[in-house]
Sequence to fold (460 residues):
Amino acid sequence: MLTEALYQSKHTDRRFSALKSASFREPGFESRAPVTDFPGMLRSFDRNALIYAENDPATCFYRVVVGAVRSSKVLFDGRRQIAAFYLPGQAFGVELCTKRIFSTEAIVPSKLMVMRRNTLHSEHQDPDLLHRLYTMADGELQRAQHRLTLLAKTAQERVATFLLDLNDCGEAGELLHIPMPRQDIADYLGLTMETVSRVLSQLQDAALISIPTCKQIVLRNRAALRRRAG
Amino acid sequence: MLTEALYQSKHTDRRFSALKSASFREPGFESRAPVTDFPGMLRSFDRNALIYAENDPATCFYRVVVGAVRSSKVLFDGRRQIAAFYLPGQAFGVELCTKRIFSTEAIVPSKLMVMRRNTLHSEHQDPDLLHRLYTMADGELQRAQHRLTLLAKTAQERVATFLLDLNDCGEAGELLHIPMPRQDIADYLGLTMETVSRVLSQLQDAALISIPTCKQIVLRNRAALRRRAG
DNA sequence: CGGAATATTGATCAAGATCAAAGCGAGTGG
DNA sequence: CCACTCGCTTTGATCTTGATCAATATTCCG
Fold:
């Protein structure tokens, strides 16, 4: 199944109109990074729309302008592992492989800058571009390796780590906007939805955070949170 | 603390003699990849010798010629997460970062090809080399992301995955040589030593593997093992 | 042969999963 | 405008997996 951006383009209009609906406004997820240095086409994706699927040829890479994206893989029996979340300003799909290993989906209605990779197979001609791709892949590697330490951590530590990481890549403020549902967080951390929810409640009881709505979390005591993150 | 290869060189002679001892012979871990295409110095490291430490400046990258290497990180309370193992033919330390995020150590007496990175900051001059570095970092990324799926897996699945992965990067034969102790496997998979040992025994009882000695495992039924790997 | 390090096996315990029910909130239609 | 519904979240009760604690067995050395 080919689901790369070209396929998506058939539905762009419908999706774009969906984007304009009132429900789209996601405070805290406006574009923060300059996108002008990233030539390509702007495309819109509905909530849960597939951006590319496992085994698709890797013809494009992407940068989130507005919204949020998850990359994931489903095991034979339905368990799902989320490999990464991408927020505005972050690039993804920069791996050098020809076939996608994870599929990616929009978590909320999102706008992505899409760049075709075959315009990049002139990579050898443009060491600068090559270097930038390498740098992006390297960032991805750093984050993946950082996440491997989750294997050694408890549920509390995993959730605390998640909140702090999300805080680092979002704005500096104490109010965190959580674009993804609890199930996504669970599949990202290797826990169940229920455990994530329980741990968040515990952290609230301990006055480390507060949860005004389930999509908003206030970090009340980042130092203590960092201590619990291991 | 600076522990890059230059520091190590002080001890090279002593280590090299250790390497020559009879105990060094590690069947199945001879050099399999050509190293001639990898200019650099050959250095020897004792068992458990530090190759570089967390926070060291990243001045070199490496390729295993003989032996086995682990890269790891220790949490504040002593828990350890192993990020990767490197076997003969595999390169490591190719991240673009300036400071090391993980430390690396020789698991058994090892010989490494060491290449200084500052000879590489002429990267822009050599797009071919840049491309090769990118390719290596990309391989590292693939493996790290693959390993993230461990978070969703049970102990049996983790151990089965480990055995198959080790088999993939070793020779084609059914006899697997395990250079690392059980504790390393445990810290790699996010389990305890005891659980690793128990699961291996279970797999042996189920006739999927046999364990002639604790450093040797025979894969008796790879298809079934793959099924258990999730 | 002997002793230290590493591995295996057993018994118990606890963290997190599972199963189940209730609560909440946003969008829909009467 | 309110009630209804559907999807998501929270909370509770119980169970299972893997951790922990402890003893024994191997292996690898000098």
